[in-house]
Amino acid sequence: MGLNVVVVTLPDPTLEPLIAELRETFPDLEFRSVPVSFSPNVDYMAPIKKETSDITIQLIFNNAGFIVTGFFEATDEMKHLVNLECNARAAVRVTHHFLRILVAKKLKGCICFTSSVAGYIPTPFAVMYASTKAFVSQFSSCVAIEVANLGIDVCAVHPSPVNSNFYDKVEHKIQLMEDAKKAAVEPDSITGDIFKSIDSWYLRDLGAMAIGTRLGTSFLPYNFFTGMFAAFAPFLGDYKTHNAKRG
């Protein structure tokens, strides 16, 4: 699309080869990399601000996120806090920084969040993931109202399963996730839909699973689903498997 790109991602061995490949494929565009970790004890905003201080960022994509599985109390507290930082707090900090610049300079732009329909249903065995995604969708919608009349589009997308590294380091296998992974689509199959969503949607469900989940849960109260899931949870295979390891 002719866009210059700043890639903010984990400082792992895949980053520099990715940037080199992008530069070779698109020699007329500029690519920068900012290797950081969205962790509670890391000042990740400092390098982001430094590497973008001389350029104008008008398109912001908050896509970083991962999942911690298993019973909430059985998982180390710090893992939950890192999950919270990456999935939610980092999105707030990145958005706040660049949005202030857009508003101050009276520039148009867009801010897009990768959220999930997991935020719209009770999601046992992935408590922090569902909670952070509920926050992201709500946060996105609230900010959208404040800046819509400034020409800044804010959108949160809820993709169906995507074939990415998301599933690679899941510590506790969840059968529902394994089943969802089988229906995952390739990343490049949804990027066009994400761009098309930005100027016409505030919340956008992408793919059959996301749309079906939202439709199936839109007619009944959240309290009903919580009660129903609580009643039937002990009979689920995932519950039985992980409950046996409690204590």
Automatic annotation (TrEMBL):
UniProtKB keywords: Membrane, Oxidoreductase, Transmembrane, Transmembrane helix
Chief location bin: endoplasmic reticulum
One GO CC term on file: endoplasmic reticulum
Keyword rRNA-binding in record: no
GO function terms (MF aspect): oxidoreductase activity
Regions crossing the membrane: 219-237
Alphabetized Gene3D superfamilies for the sequence: NAD(P)-binding Rossmann-like Domain
InterPro entries, per the entry: NAD(P)-bd_dom_sf, Sc_DH/Rdtase_CS, SDR_fam, VLCFA-Steroid_DH
Localization terms from the record: Endoplasmic reticulum
PANTHER family (alphabetical): 17 BETA-HYDROXYSTEROID DEHYDROGENASE TYPE 3, RH59310P
Protein's UniProt name: Uncharacterized protein
